[in-house]
Amino acid sequence: MTTLNHPSGSAGCISQYDPQALPVSAAQAIVLQWVTRLAASERVPLREALARVLAEDVISPIDVPAHDNAAMDGYAFDGAALAGASGNLSLTVCGKAFAGHAYPGEVAAGACVRIMTGAPMPTGCDTVVPQELVSAQGDVITFEANAVKRGANARRKGEDLARGGVALAAGRVLRASDIGLLASLGLVEANVKQRLRVAYFSTGDELRSPGEPLEAGCIYDSNRYVLGAMLQRLNVEAIDLGVVRDDPAALAAMLKLAAETADVVLTSGGVSVGEADFTRTQLQTLGDVSFWGLAMRPGRPLAFGRIWSGGRPGTGRAALLFGLPGNPVATMVSFYQIVRPALMAMAGAQAQPVPLVPALSDQPIKKREGRTEFQRGLARRDASGQWRVAPTGSQSSGALSTMSEANCFIVLAHEAGDLDAGDAVDIMLFDGLV
Ligand code: AMP
Ligand code: MG
User: Fold this and answer.
1) Which of 213, 356, 368, 375 is deepest in the core (most CB within 10 A)?
2) Does any ligand 1 atom lie closer than 6 A to the CB of residue 327?
3) Domain 11-40+196-346, CATH homologous superfamily name and number
4) Which DSSP letter does residue 422 get?
5) Does residue 331 have its Cβ closer than 6 Å to ligand 1?
6) Topology at the third CATH level for domain 69-155
7) DSSP of 221-243, one letter per residue?
8) Do 357-429 and 41-64+159-193 fall under one CATH topology?
């Protein structure tokens, strides 16, 4: 039996798994058990609702469409006339219907109404013959009866959404079409979850911020910018707390401030073997934090748990903590694999897992069994429609340039070994349409 850890326990005691070789799926499962959903919600205007999480089901207050209407420009008539008709059918035009302007009268047998797309179907009509199929002479139109089926080219009242039905379910991360759908119901605002507050900072004496001179032995802090950008994409409230030097007191002070300010705290650096002892003491004083070695590349070291703003467990405000590795690509992969699903769950989002697309590798790939690898790849579809992929070059966990060049991760499964050219792999594409 798999006994995963629970919030009441410690993030370190994971029976069955070696915390120094924790499979990605196990780490994801443990993290999700620690997540508490954000309760607070707020009403926002539709224009500000994109990418927010719906806090409750939206029940349709009306039928959409509100009335039967024409799906094409043409002539509306009672489709009963088609029954038994063979060869040509002729009808007399008795009036017009435009979108927003219904034909007011009844339509007698043998008659039809000139109708435009979106116009309400006149009483007694259920079928539209498109204008392209008709020849008109004066008030009389003629068309081949078997070219139209009864009910064709008419949209039914409520066929898109029925009044009283669930139009969108709670947990929906609102997309452009959803905003349009809410507008089509006449709603002016949406009840969405409050934004998750995520504070983040970088650690390291060697870090300089862009705009500052770069002294010998120093590097620019890229992680804070990557983290800020990834958080922006998730539409959370991102709080940039800057850079903290490798100084225990400064680190403890910043962690307390972060827990006071945010629901989740992300740090980068200081969790690898060489540095872990220093951070470990601070984190473990402030809360319940474990240091894992994930069976993942890049992104092996990770600190995870809960810290308290009061300086020790149970005092002040609690925040979930992710101590991410310092190497820039490791930071990104850890964010996407471990942090992102947790943030989505905390925000109350019913998120689907990111889809994997089957592809063939253009070249041999070295892969060690017993860890999941996320290589940076450039994927394309060949002339036959098959996805093909090649790594973008250096897979060093520090090389952001090959991450920038890539358009996907090549996901190499935990149990997989070396691959030959032409072998099947899964890819996770970076860009989506909506
Ligand atoms: P650490 O996890 O602190 O041992 O850092 C691992 C590597 O990542 C080192 O080469 C660091 O210089 C580098 N690194 C740490 N933090 C950052 C950062 N914020 N931006 C860019 N590189 C970093
Ligand atoms: Mg460091």
Assistant:
1) 375
2) yes
3) MoaB/Mog-like domain (3.40.980.10)
4) T
5) no
6) Molybdopterin biosynthesis moeA protein; domain 3 (2.170.190)
7) --HHHHHHHHHHHTT-EEEEEEE
8) no
